[in-house]
Design goal:
Helix content is 34%, strand content 17%. With 148 residues, it is of the alpha+beta class.
Length: 148
């Protein structure tokens, strides 16, 4: 999702597109990876020294409720990123070190046998994410077994 689209969605839903909200969205767009509220606090602190952690977290939850950002729970922390531009169904590989994401084309559910699942169930949504090290982090870490 582009920042301008996110700001329009905020206003369409009756919320003000404040400078702080725009700064959070622009930072998420620039970083293009999953970030914690703490990450955003650190990235925004120099330009917005009076921006509180609570304000960042509240806005992230609002953005999530409005479908502007998506979140994952990883390593005991909620992490956020702007919703993808594409409307096509897809999943992500997420680097456990830097939070970078890569699109996984297709859907594993298309080929996953659902043996034993009651045929009368209706699946309405699902998530499938792979976690590991991106090529850059893998080079920096060296011995992969050290982080696993």
């Amino acid at each position: 999702m582009r920042v301008e689209e996110a700001l329009r969605r905020l206003e369409d839903e009756g919320y003000k597109a404040t400078n702080k909200r725009e700064a959070i969205l622009r930072t998420l767009a620039r970083e293009d990876r999953y970030l914690t509220a703490k990450d955003l606090f650190a990235l925004l602190h120099d330009d917005y020294p009076y921006l509180s952690f609570d304000t960042i977290y509240r806005n992230l939850r609002l953005f999530e409720a409005l479908g502007i950002v998506t979140s994952i729970e990883f390593d005991g922390q909620r992490r956020f990123r702007l919703r993808c531009d594409t409307e096509e169904h897809h999943h992500h590989f997420i680097c456990i070190r830097c939070g970078a994401t890569m699109v996984i084309p297709g859907c594993p559910l298309d080929v996953l046998p659902l043996n034993g699942l009651d045929p009368d169930v209706l699946i309405v949504d699902h998530k499938f994410e792979l976690y590991g090290l991106c090529p850059r982090c893998r080079k920096e870490v060296g011995d992969v077994t050290a982080v696993v």
